[in-house]
UniProtKB/TrEMBL annotation:
Natural source organism: Flavobacterium magnesitis
A family per Pfam: CN_hydrolase
Keywords linked to the UniProt accession: Hydrolase
Record's keyword annotation contains Hydrolase: yes
InterPro entries tied to this protein: Aliph_Amidase/BUP, C-N_Hydrolase, C-N_Hydrolase_sf
Entry's Gene Ontology molecular function annotations: hydrolase activity
SUPFAM superfamilies reported in the protein's UniProt record: Carbon-nitrogen hydrolase (SSF56317)
CN hydrolase domain location: 6-265
UniProt keyword Oxidoreductase present: no
Name this protein carries in UniProt: Carbon-nitrogen hydrolase
Length: 295
């Protein structure tokens, strides 16, 4: 029988360091989360390095790793030791010239419960991800684990209701969003509040529209690794929301933290029974959604 209740966690960290140090740091924080009762634990996007997409530089491809190498080995052993599920977002080298922004979902026995490759790739000032990442080709997935059904999307995916919907329709109880989102320091005073508010609103909307739990794991800190540039101030504020969009746990903008909340499948079912959005979907009328524009 599946678990009716289980505890999930997101870890909010400053990751502006080299891969070896970030790995050690994240292992330590996952241990702390597990010691506090967390059973499914997510790290932020691209955990092993600073956010290198602020520039287009071929040298940064050296930060990528092949499948089932350093990150998988380390967190597979840790998941098995602790008996927890770990979501590990990493920079994947698939082959020469093909790289992905990916995440392992590692089960409690150390096996791979799933692999997700980021589907939506941004290309904005200081977020030049299209230079590095090939769009994902595995689609949107529910990943059954020994703790629960886990869906993983990554950062820019968070703005797309279709991604959340499909993942939920496939059976995901929780949508995890490993994230690296922040302010351009020169824009923060004028636009920062609205940008952060939009992020919170759209994510809570995914929870409401799909009757799912939503958990976002963000970075913190100013990452200014390029000389004579303002860098990016990652806004933290990681959170876990329930199936009515209610905030169950919320982090600060500037501190490293662990957030833990309980997933209650009986509550989720009750919400969906009373707000039967899935029942009333007019799937016969949605064909145009697959078009780029409806001219």
């Amino acid at each position: 029988m599946p678990n009716k209740k289980y505890k999930i966690a997101v870890i909010q960290l400053n990751l502006n360091d080299i891969a070896e140090n970030n790995l050690k740091k994240c292992i330590s924080w996952v241990r702390d989360a597990a010691s506090q009762g967390a059973e499914v634990i997510s790290l932020p996007e691209l955990y092993s390095s600073h956010y290198f997409c602020q520039s287009e530089d071929v040298d940064n491809f050296a930060l990528a790793e092949p499948l089932y190498s350093t990150s998988f080995t380390a967190f597979s052993e840790l998941a098995k030791e602790l008996g927890v599920v770990i979501i590990v977002p990493f920079f994947e080298k698939r082959m020469a010239g093909i790289y992905h922004n990916s995440a392992y979902i590692i089960d409690t026995d150390g096996t791979e419960a799933g692999l997700y490759r980021k589907m939506h790739i941004p290309d904005d000032p200081a977020f030049y991800e299209k230079f590095y990442f090939t769009p994902g080709d595995l689609g949107f997935k529910n990943n059954p684990t020994k703790k629960g059904n886990i869906g993983t999307l990554i950062c820019w995916d968070q703005w797309y209701p279709e991604a959340a919907r499909i993942t939920a329709l496939k059976g995901a109880e929780v949508l995890f969003y490993p994230t690296a989102i922040g302010w351009h320091p020169q824009e923060k005073e004028q636009y920062g509040e609205n940008q952060y508010g939009a992020w919170m609103n759209v994510m809570k909307g995914h929870a409401v529209a799909n009757g799912v739990y939503v958990a976002a794991a963000n970075r913190i800190g100013l990452e200014q690794y390029l000389p004579d540039t303002p860098g990016i101030e990652f806004w933290g504020a990681s959170f876990i929301a329930g199936p009515q969009g209610e905030i169950l746990a919320q982090a600060s903008h500037d501190k490293e933290e662990i957030l833990i909340a309980e997933v209650d499948l009986d509550l989720q079912e009750n919400v969906r029974q009373n707000w039967p959005f899935f029942r009333d979907r007019r799937i016969d009328a949605f064909g145009d959604i697959t078009k780029r524009a409806i001219d």
